[in-house]
From TrEMBL:
The protein's Enzyme Commission number: 3.2.1.8
Enzyme class, spelled out: hydrolase
Reactions catalysed, as given in the entry: Endohydrolysis of (1->4)-beta-D-xylosidic linkages in xylans
Keywords for the protein's UniProt record, in alphabetical order: Carbohydrate metabolism, Glycosidase, Hydrolase, Polysaccharide degradation, Signal, Xylan degradation
Protein name as it appears in the record: Beta-xylanase
All residue ranges annotated as the GH10 domain in the record: 1-323
Amino acid sequence: IDTDVFLKDKAANNFFVGAAVSTNRLSGKYNELLTTEFNSITAESEMKMRTIFLGPGNYNWTAPDALVNYATENNLNIHGHALVWHVEVPDWMTTFTGTDEEFEQIIEDYIKAVVTRYAGKITSWDVVNEAINDGGGIRNSIFLEKMGSDYIAKCFQWAREADPDALLFYNDYNTPEDLTKQNDVYAMIDELQSNNIPIDGIGLQMHISIDNPTRQQIQVDVDKAIERNLIVHFSELDIRVNPDGRQIVNSLTEERDFAQRLKYKEVVDLYNSIPDSFKYAITVWGIRDPESWIIDQYNRPDWPLLFDDSFDRKSAHIGFLEGL
Ligand code: XIL
Protein backbone atom coordinates (compact mmCIF):
# COMPACT_ATOMS: atom_id res chain seq x y z
CA ILE A 1 0.00 0.00 0.00
CA ASP A 2 1.38 3.37 -0.99
CA THR A 3 1.47 4.84 2.51
CA ASP A 4 2.36 8.37 1.52
CA VAL A 5 -0.71 9.00 -0.59
CA PHE A 6 -3.56 10.45 1.46
CA LEU A 7 -7.24 10.63 0.59
CA LYS A 8 -7.53 14.41 0.76
CA ASP A 9 -4.48 14.96 -1.44
CA LYS A 10 -5.65 12.64 -4.19
CA ALA A 11 -9.04 14.38 -4.23
CA ALA A 12 -6.93 17.51 -4.48
CA ASN A 13 -9.02 20.69 -4.73
CA ASN A 14 -11.93 19.10 -6.53
CA PHE A 15 -13.80 18.16 -3.35
CA PHE A 16 -13.36 17.60 0.36
CA VAL A 17 -12.80 14.13 1.82
CA GLY A 18 -14.50 14.12 5.21
CA ALA A 19 -15.22 11.90 8.17
CA ALA A 20 -17.84 11.90 10.89
CA VAL A 21 -16.12 12.53 14.23
CA SER A 22 -16.95 12.88 17.92
CA THR A 23 -15.31 15.25 20.39
CA ASN A 24 -14.08 12.30 22.47
CA ARG A 25 -12.10 11.08 19.44
CA LEU A 26 -10.02 14.08 18.52
CA SER A 27 -6.63 13.31 20.03
CA GLY A 28 -3.78 10.87 19.52
CA LYS A 29 -4.10 8.56 16.55
CA TYR A 30 -7.46 10.07 15.58
CA ASN A 31 -5.94 13.53 15.36
CA GLU A 32 -3.04 12.19 13.28
CA LEU A 33 -5.34 10.26 10.95
CA LEU A 34 -7.90 13.05 10.57
CA THR A 35 -5.34 15.72 9.77
CA THR A 36 -3.36 13.62 7.28
CA GLU A 37 -6.12 11.72 5.44
CA PHE A 38 -9.07 14.12 5.65
CA ASN A 39 -9.78 17.82 5.17
CA SER A 40 -13.40 17.96 6.34
CA ILE A 41 -15.38 16.77 9.35
CA THR A 42 -19.02 16.29 10.25
CA ALA A 43 -20.11 16.03 13.90
CA GLU A 44 -21.65 12.61 14.48
CA SER A 45 -23.85 14.06 17.25
CA GLU A 46 -22.47 17.36 18.63
CA MET A 47 -24.40 19.61 16.23
CA LYS A 48 -27.77 17.97 16.66
CA MET A 49 -30.70 19.41 18.62
CA ARG A 50 -30.39 16.85 21.40
CA THR A 51 -26.90 18.18 22.21
CA ILE A 52 -27.46 21.93 21.80
CA PHE A 53 -31.16 22.64 22.29
CA LEU A 54 -31.78 22.42 26.08
CA GLY A 55 -34.98 24.46 25.97
CA PRO A 56 -36.60 27.51 24.36
CA GLY A 57 -33.77 30.03 23.92
CA ASN A 58 -31.49 27.79 26.02
CA TYR A 59 -28.49 26.46 24.08
CA ASN A 60 -25.43 24.45 25.16
CA TRP A 61 -22.49 25.37 22.93
CA THR A 62 -19.74 23.41 24.74
CA ALA A 63 -19.58 20.36 22.46
CA PRO A 64 -20.13 22.10 19.09
CA ASP A 65 -17.66 24.84 20.02
CA ALA A 66 -15.03 22.20 20.86
CA LEU A 67 -15.48 20.62 17.46
CA VAL A 68 -15.42 23.92 15.59
CA ASN A 69 -12.30 25.03 17.48
CA TYR A 70 -10.57 21.73 16.63
CA ALA A 71 -11.48 22.09 12.96
CA THR A 72 -10.34 25.71 12.83
CA GLU A 73 -7.03 24.88 14.54
CA ASN A 74 -6.44 22.01 12.12
CA ASN A 75 -7.64 23.80 8.99
CA LEU A 76 -10.47 21.33 8.43
CA ASN A 77 -13.72 22.16 6.67
CA ILE A 78 -16.82 21.56 8.79
CA HIS A 79 -20.15 20.37 7.44
CA GLY A 80 -22.96 21.26 9.86
CA HIS A 81 -25.26 18.32 10.64
CA ALA A 82 -28.18 18.73 11.19
CA LEU A 83 -30.43 21.66 12.06
CA VAL A 84 -33.79 19.86 11.90
CA TRP A 85 -34.19 16.06 12.14
CA HIS A 86 -37.14 14.05 13.42
CA VAL A 87 -34.91 11.60 15.31
CA GLU A 88 -32.92 13.85 17.63
CA VAL A 89 -35.85 15.89 18.98
CA PRO A 90 -35.09 16.89 22.59
CA ASP A 91 -37.40 15.38 25.20
CA TRP A 92 -38.65 18.80 26.41
CA MET A 93 -39.89 19.53 22.88
CA THR A 94 -42.14 16.48 22.80
CA THR A 95 -44.06 17.81 25.84
CA PHE A 96 -44.15 21.44 24.67
CA THR A 97 -47.50 22.98 25.65
CA GLY A 98 -47.22 26.35 23.89
CA THR A 99 -49.07 27.34 20.72
CA ASP A 100 -47.93 26.31 17.24
CA GLU A 101 -46.89 29.92 16.61
CA GLU A 102 -44.74 29.89 19.75
CA PHE A 103 -43.22 26.55 18.66
CA GLU A 104 -42.39 27.93 15.23
CA GLN A 105 -40.74 31.00 16.76
CA ILE A 106 -38.63 28.73 19.02
CA ILE A 107 -37.42 26.75 15.98
CA GLU A 108 -36.67 29.92 14.02
CA ASP A 109 -34.70 31.32 16.96
CA TYR A 110 -32.78 28.03 17.27
CA ILE A 111 -31.82 27.79 13.61
CA LYS A 112 -30.75 31.43 13.51
CA ALA A 113 -28.78 31.15 16.78
CA VAL A 114 -26.83 28.09 15.58
CA VAL A 115 -26.18 29.27 12.02
CA THR A 116 -25.28 32.80 13.13
CA ARG A 117 -22.86 31.52 15.79
CA TYR A 118 -20.85 29.50 13.28
CA ALA A 119 -21.24 31.73 10.24
CA GLY A 120 -17.87 31.95 8.51
CA LYS A 121 -16.65 28.78 10.26
CA ILE A 122 -19.25 26.20 9.18
CA THR A 123 -19.47 26.40 5.38
CA SER A 124 -22.46 24.13 4.82
CA TRP A 125 -25.50 22.81 6.66
CA ASP A 126 -27.87 19.90 6.46
CA VAL A 127 -30.82 22.21 7.11
CA VAL A 128 -33.42 19.42 7.08
CA ASN A 129 -32.53 15.72 7.41
CA GLU A 130 -34.71 12.74 6.35
CA ALA A 131 -38.03 14.58 5.82
CA ILE A 132 -39.38 12.05 3.26
CA ASN A 133 -40.61 8.59 4.28
CA ASP A 134 -39.23 5.32 2.97
CA GLY A 135 -41.64 4.59 0.13
CA GLY A 136 -42.40 8.28 -0.32
CA GLY A 137 -44.61 10.91 1.28
CA ILE A 138 -43.65 13.64 3.73
CA ARG A 139 -42.55 12.13 7.06
CA ASN A 140 -44.73 12.97 10.03
CA SER A 141 -42.84 14.79 12.78
CA ILE A 142 -43.36 17.40 15.46
CA PHE A 143 -42.17 19.97 12.90
CA LEU A 144 -44.80 18.97 10.35
CA GLU A 145 -47.52 18.81 12.99
CA LYS A 146 -46.83 22.18 14.56
CA MET A 147 -45.48 24.19 11.62
CA GLY A 148 -47.35 22.72 8.67
CA SER A 149 -46.05 21.25 5.40
CA ASP A 150 -44.05 24.40 4.56
CA TYR A 151 -41.81 23.83 7.59
CA ILE A 152 -39.04 22.68 5.27
CA ALA A 153 -39.19 25.92 3.26
CA LYS A 154 -39.18 27.98 6.47
CA CYS A 155 -36.06 26.22 7.80
CA PHE A 156 -34.12 26.91 4.61
CA GLN A 157 -35.20 30.56 4.59
CA TRP A 158 -34.18 31.04 8.22
CA ALA A 159 -30.79 29.40 7.65
CA ARG A 160 -30.18 31.64 4.62
CA GLU A 161 -31.16 34.76 6.59
CA ALA A 162 -28.64 33.76 9.28
CA ASP A 163 -25.77 33.03 6.88
CA PRO A 164 -25.91 34.29 3.28
CA ASP A 165 -22.76 32.34 2.40
CA ALA A 166 -23.34 28.85 3.80
CA LEU A 167 -24.26 26.07 1.39
CA LEU A 168 -27.71 24.79 2.39
CA PHE A 169 -28.35 21.06 1.86
CA TYR A 170 -31.28 18.72 2.10
CA ASN A 171 -30.00 15.32 3.36
CA ASP A 172 -31.59 11.85 3.07
CA TYR A 173 -30.88 8.13 2.62
CA ASN A 174 -31.81 5.22 0.31
CA THR A 175 -32.97 7.41 -2.57
CA PRO A 176 -30.89 5.51 -5.16
CA GLU A 177 -32.64 2.26 -4.18
CA ASP A 178 -36.13 3.55 -3.33
CA LEU A 179 -37.52 5.22 -6.44
CA THR A 180 -40.78 6.42 -4.87
CA LYS A 181 -38.79 8.07 -2.09
CA GLN A 182 -36.38 9.49 -4.68
CA ASN A 183 -39.30 10.84 -6.71
CA ASP A 184 -40.83 12.59 -3.69
CA VAL A 185 -37.51 14.05 -2.54
CA TYR A 186 -37.03 15.71 -5.90
CA ALA A 187 -40.68 16.75 -6.10
CA MET A 188 -40.20 18.45 -2.73
CA ILE A 189 -37.04 20.14 -4.00
CA ASP A 190 -38.81 21.21 -7.20
CA GLU A 191 -41.46 22.91 -5.07
CA LEU A 192 -38.84 24.66 -2.94
CA GLN A 193 -37.04 25.90 -6.06
CA SER A 194 -40.27 27.03 -7.75
CA ASN A 195 -40.98 29.11 -4.64
CA ASN A 196 -37.46 30.58 -4.71
CA ILE A 197 -36.55 28.90 -1.44
CA PRO A 198 -32.73 28.88 -1.09
CA ILE A 199 -31.35 25.34 -1.40
CA ASP A 200 -27.85 24.74 -2.74
CA GLY A 201 -27.36 21.02 -2.55
CA ILE A 202 -28.47 17.53 -1.68
CA GLY A 203 -26.77 15.11 0.68
CA LEU A 204 -27.06 11.48 -0.39
CA GLN A 205 -26.17 9.69 2.83
CA MET A 206 -24.90 6.56 1.04
CA HIS A 207 -25.32 4.07 3.88
CA ILE A 208 -24.97 1.24 1.36
CA SER A 209 -23.73 -2.34 1.04
CA ILE A 210 -21.41 -4.29 -1.24
CA ASP A 211 -24.52 -5.41 -3.19
CA ASN A 212 -26.78 -2.31 -3.26
CA PRO A 213 -27.36 0.15 -4.79
CA THR A 214 -25.88 -0.43 -8.23
CA ARG A 215 -23.72 2.23 -9.83
CA GLN A 216 -26.54 2.91 -12.31
CA GLN A 217 -29.05 3.49 -9.49
CA ILE A 218 -26.70 5.99 -7.85
CA GLN A 219 -26.10 7.69 -11.22
CA VAL A 220 -29.85 8.18 -11.79
CA ASP A 221 -30.11 9.92 -8.41
CA VAL A 222 -27.03 12.08 -9.00
CA ASP A 223 -28.32 13.06 -12.47
CA LYS A 224 -31.61 14.29 -10.96
CA ALA A 225 -29.65 16.45 -8.53
CA ILE A 226 -27.46 17.93 -11.26
CA GLU A 227 -30.52 18.58 -13.47
CA ARG A 228 -31.72 20.80 -10.61
CA ASN A 229 -28.37 22.56 -10.32
CA LEU A 230 -27.81 21.00 -6.89
CA ILE A 231 -24.38 20.42 -5.43
CA VAL A 232 -24.01 16.74 -4.47
CA HIS A 233 -22.57 15.60 -1.12
CA PHE A 234 -22.05 11.89 -0.46
CA SER A 235 -22.63 12.75 3.16
CA GLU A 236 -22.48 9.58 5.29
CA LEU A 237 -20.76 6.91 3.22
CA ASP A 238 -20.25 3.46 4.71
CA ILE A 239 -20.40 0.11 2.90
CA ARG A 240 -21.76 -2.92 4.75
CA VAL A 241 -20.19 -6.31 4.00
CA ASN A 242 -23.03 -8.15 5.75
CA PRO A 243 -25.91 -7.04 3.51
CA ASP A 244 -29.43 -8.46 3.59
CA GLY A 245 -29.70 -11.52 1.42
CA ARG A 246 -26.22 -12.84 2.00
CA GLN A 247 -25.07 -15.35 4.57
CA ILE A 248 -23.75 -13.35 7.56
CA VAL A 249 -19.98 -13.59 8.07
CA ASN A 250 -18.53 -13.12 11.55
CA SER A 251 -15.19 -11.82 10.35
CA LEU A 252 -14.14 -9.66 7.41
CA THR A 253 -13.46 -12.47 4.97
CA GLU A 254 -11.05 -11.92 2.06
CA GLU A 255 -13.95 -12.19 -0.38
CA ARG A 256 -16.06 -9.52 1.39
CA ASP A 257 -12.99 -7.34 1.94
CA PHE A 258 -12.29 -7.37 -1.79
CA ALA A 259 -15.94 -6.74 -2.67
CA GLN A 260 -15.89 -3.73 -0.35
CA ARG A 261 -12.73 -2.39 -2.02
CA LEU A 262 -14.44 -2.62 -5.40
CA LYS A 263 -17.60 -0.91 -4.13
CA TYR A 264 -15.67 1.99 -2.56
CA LYS A 265 -13.78 2.37 -5.84
CA GLU A 266 -17.07 2.35 -7.80
CA VAL A 267 -18.76 4.95 -5.57
CA VAL A 268 -15.74 7.26 -5.43
CA ASP A 269 -15.18 6.92 -9.18
CA LEU A 270 -18.81 7.88 -9.79
CA TYR A 271 -18.49 10.90 -7.49
CA ASN A 272 -15.24 11.88 -9.18
CA SER A 273 -17.04 11.91 -12.55
CA ILE A 274 -19.53 14.53 -11.34
CA PRO A 275 -18.77 17.92 -12.95
CA ASP A 276 -16.57 19.90 -10.56
CA SER A 277 -19.13 22.67 -10.04
CA PHE A 278 -21.55 20.10 -8.54
CA LYS A 279 -18.99 18.48 -6.22
CA TYR A 280 -18.66 19.29 -2.52
CA ALA A 281 -17.42 16.32 -0.48
CA ILE A 282 -17.44 12.62 0.14
CA THR A 283 -17.81 12.11 3.89
CA VAL A 284 -17.37 8.66 5.41
CA TRP A 285 -19.47 8.03 8.46
CA GLY A 286 -16.69 7.27 10.93
CA ILE A 287 -13.04 6.30 11.06
CA ARG A 288 -12.65 2.80 12.52
CA ASP A 289 -14.91 -0.19 11.89
CA PRO A 290 -15.68 -0.95 15.55
CA GLU A 291 -17.11 2.57 16.03
CA SER A 292 -19.52 2.37 13.12
CA TRP A 293 -23.16 3.07 14.00
CA ILE A 294 -24.05 0.31 11.50
CA ILE A 295 -23.20 -2.45 14.02
CA ASP A 296 -25.89 -1.27 16.46
CA GLN A 297 -28.29 -0.17 13.73
CA TYR A 298 -28.33 -3.59 12.02
CA ASN A 299 -27.55 -5.55 15.20
CA ARG A 300 -24.93 -7.73 13.54
CA PRO A 301 -21.17 -7.62 12.97
CA ASP A 302 -19.93 -5.43 10.14
CA TRP A 303 -16.80 -3.62 8.94
CA PRO A 304 -18.17 -0.70 6.87
CA LEU A 305 -15.36 1.88 7.06
CA LEU A 306 -11.84 2.56 5.74
CA PHE A 307 -9.74 1.77 8.82
CA ASP A 308 -9.62 -1.23 11.15
CA ASP A 309 -9.57 -1.19 14.94
CA SER A 310 -5.78 -0.69 14.89
CA PHE A 311 -6.21 2.47 12.76
CA ASP A 312 -4.64 0.55 9.87
CA ARG A 313 -5.86 1.14 6.34
CA LYS A 314 -8.10 -1.60 4.91
CA SER A 315 -8.51 -2.68 1.31
CA ALA A 316 -11.46 -0.27 1.32
CA HIS A 317 -8.94 2.57 1.61
CA ILE A 318 -7.17 1.30 -1.48
CA GLY A 319 -10.51 1.19 -3.28
CA PHE A 320 -11.24 4.78 -2.24
CA LEU A 321 -7.86 5.92 -3.58
CA GLU A 322 -8.35 3.93 -6.80
CA GLY A 323 -11.65 5.80 -7.33
CA LEU A 324 -10.06 9.23 -7.00
C1 XIL B 1 -26.24 8.44 13.83
C2 XIL B 1 -24.93 8.36 14.63
O1 XIL B 1 -23.94 7.73 13.82
C3 XIL B 1 -25.18 7.58 15.91
O2 XIL B 1 -24.00 7.62 16.69
C4 XIL B 1 -26.34 8.19 16.66
O3 XIL B 1 -26.60 7.40 17.78
C5 XIL B 1 -27.58 8.27 15.79
O4 XIL B 1 -27.30 9.03 14.60
N1 XIL B 1 -28.52 9.32 9.40
C6 XIL B 1 -28.02 10.50 9.87
C7 XIL B 1 -27.04 10.50 10.97
O5 XIL B 1 -28.29 11.57 9.30
O6 XIL B 1 -27.16 11.66 11.80
C8 XIL B 1 -27.16 9.25 11.83
O7 XIL B 1 -26.05 9.24 12.70
C9 XIL B 1 -27.16 8.01 10.95
C10 XIL B 1 -28.31 8.04 10.01
